[in-house]
Design brief:
mainly alpha
């Protein structure tokens, strides 16, 4: 009987260790995803700033984008 209980406890420990390893892999992948999301946010922010600069430049240039469409780009 004692041997059977030890085997059951050992199996539980092995199962818990496997679950812990699985959770560690999941956490690592979540960190990787979080890093990727942060990089995309930074790219998005840079693009937003660039779009603001372009919009500002177009407002300051007479004719703006319509001049470009009309073929009178300088």
């Amino acid at each position: 009987m004692a041997l059977c209980l030890c085997r059951i406890e050992y199996n539980k420990i092995v199962c818990f260790q496997a679950k812990i390893a699985e959770l560690q892999k999941l956490l690592e992948s979540m960190q990787s995803i979080e890093d990727e999301v942060q990089a995309l946010r930074e790219k998005n922010s840079a693009l937003d700033q660039e779009m603001e600069l372009v919009a500002t430049a177009q407002k300051q240039t007479p004719g703006g984008v319509w001049r470009w469409f009309g073929g009178r780009e300088t």
